[in-house]
Amino acid sequence: xxxxxxxxxxxxxxxxxxxxxxxxxxxxxxxxxxxxxxxxxxxxxxxxxxxxxxxxxxxxxxxxxxxxxxxxxxxxxxxxxxxxxxxxxxxxxxxxxxxxxxxxxxxxxxxxxxxxxxxxxxxxxxxxxxxxxxxxxxxxxxxxxxxxxxxxxxxxxxxxxxxxxxxxxxxxxxxxxxxxxxxxxxxxxxxxxxxxxxxxxxxxxxxxxxxxxxxxxxxxxxxxxxxxxxxxxxxxxxxxxxxxxxxxxxxxxxxxxxxxxxxxxxxxxxxxxxxxxxxxxxxxxxxxxxxxxxxxxxxxxxxxxxxxxxxxxxxxxxxxxxxxxxxxxxxxxxxxxxxxxxxxxxxxxxxxxxxxxxxxxxxxxxxxxxxxxxxxxxxxxxxxxxxxxxxxxxxxxxxxxxxxxxxxxxxxxxxxxxxxxxxxxxxxxxxxxxxxxxxxxxxxxxxxxxxxxxxxxxxxxxxxxxxxxxxxxxxxxxxxxxxxxxxxxxx
Length: 491
What we know:
Helices cover about 80% and strands about 0% of the residues. It is mainly α and about 500 residues long. It is built from 19 helices and no strands.
């Protein structure tokens, strides 16, 4: 069997597993509570692996190596600081979110926000921020999946357009997500979390073997080409690197696809065990981000491989050219698993916003036959995100991901991470923080404006939203909090 056929067989085998998991999850998905919250019955390892898997996905597997290939050490400020963000997010939210969900029967993050602030307008703005952020981040997953699929299929079937690969990716995602909901996602995370960790170690070995002298040889080659690329700030510069430190370190506590999973575990006390599982899995798997990007840049500079047409092709090119075919097939299968489970998480929270949270904010209850409309909403969001992935310009996958991450962070870190721990925070401050962050993020995106000194727009909008949130909360009279919610905040 040829190398290409081995890789295709591994990917095909994984897609079959996805179909089986989706059909199995379909039988367990009896209500909207199951579709959105997995019955709030997940164990430690399932939750822990689901949390860390949601963080890497196509963003880390495709976008991360692409950024390292293009910018050198700059993007390490994303991947390293996101690891610190796990600790902060669990400290601020793990127990409180789970207790809020149990007290009020919440099936979405905006449900918990509405209970905290006693405000339907805050529920609406939270749902709106989630829906808009989902478009940017889900587009990242679809574009990453299509980019990898295009590279795999090209060697066997010739040149296939990105549009066709996006259509295939969207169709597979829709089947997987509509049938099983979040149950399919978290149990696939369990499988692919282990695959990612094992593959990361093996890819690290392959990356070291690809260059004479290992990492020392890579460093020598990169220094000769551009010493700045492996300096502390990389080629992006100090302001970009530090703004990524800010938005990725603090911003993880505002990522709804991650923190929503903190509402799904069976026991509140499990949080202290889930954190180390998530951090360990993330730390091991993040080696893919670093090793592939450095190795691929080094082999191009030393003349062993032609210059890549797109930075996002770094992972595919390395696996197809410098890894054992079975390892490449396993990593590609793991990549598809990461993308699909994370995309399912985004589609899930996006569908919840459309069929549950926004209708509840306006009319006091969600749509009738909520499970049916959740599946319809999933299809519509997937199609819109696919169009965004194709026509948002020639964005790198990681930069699309950074935009989605920054949108979530700026809107939800003040409202959720701070507001769930600070009693003086009020609904007006939360609403203003969310609206201001959306105006800045999407204003810059739509107008094509650039932020001075290379500062990431997400970091700028997070700084503005935090300032407004604290300022308004301190300036206004404290608002009453329901007694049960206040008891949780006192823990």
